[in-house]
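Let's do one together. I've listed all components of the complex below, 252 residues spread over two lines.
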Amino acid sequence: MGFPDRIERTLEVAQPPGKVWAALTTAEGLGAWFGHEATIDLRPGGAARMTWTDGASVDMRVERVEEPTVFGFTWQIYGLPKDDPRRTYVEFTLEAVGAGTRLSVVETGFSQLPEDAYRKAYDAHVGGWASELGELADHLDAA
Amino acid sequence: MPPDTEAIAEQVFVALADPTRRAILAELASGGPATATDLAARLPITRQAIAKHLALLAEAGLVTAEPGERRRVRYRLRSAPMQVAQQFLAALARDWDGPLDALKDHLNQ
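Okay, and this is what the predicted structure of the assembly comes out as:
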């Protein structure tokens, strides 16, 4: 048994790729099925955000826009703090099948590990705080 | 992925399966580094039992021992193994089936 690094799903729908594309890449589309409200700047590097009525929100960064076949974005890894830099990559691929569309979604990057650099930075911060707080305590004791 | 990743995550899950160890980790997370005696004063467990659990937690890399005041050993929470386990949980928690069903419904409207 290993860690799942990727999640893959394929979905066949009766609507043509153009309509599916709109559902994936417009604020109206994303707000109708994924979030309760959405904003999107549809270009590589553009920002997108979905919010839910329970107050949850997710920020995305648009990575690939090849209308109407490939839409890719990165977003935060579920459960990590908001300021954690690690992200997973989600790519939707649309393929016309007859009058409909075969839609695949692949999300990768779940097996990212805390890098050595991250560990070092973290340990340095922990050590730094310990000594800073020690100095503060010494300073207060001396006063 | 390094082969020891699975082992790290397994140790985290084993450590978290025990309510006393969860209580110790929660106490270190909220209150900062503490000695076994400090923890025994704050939790409804004997110092001996706490020392035994701390040894297991140190083995799993979830706490590190460091010199504290008056030459007593203090234990500090170490988050790195949690983050390894968190990657595994994240993949399980990412629910694509619900949204994709919603997309299908949306397109059929």
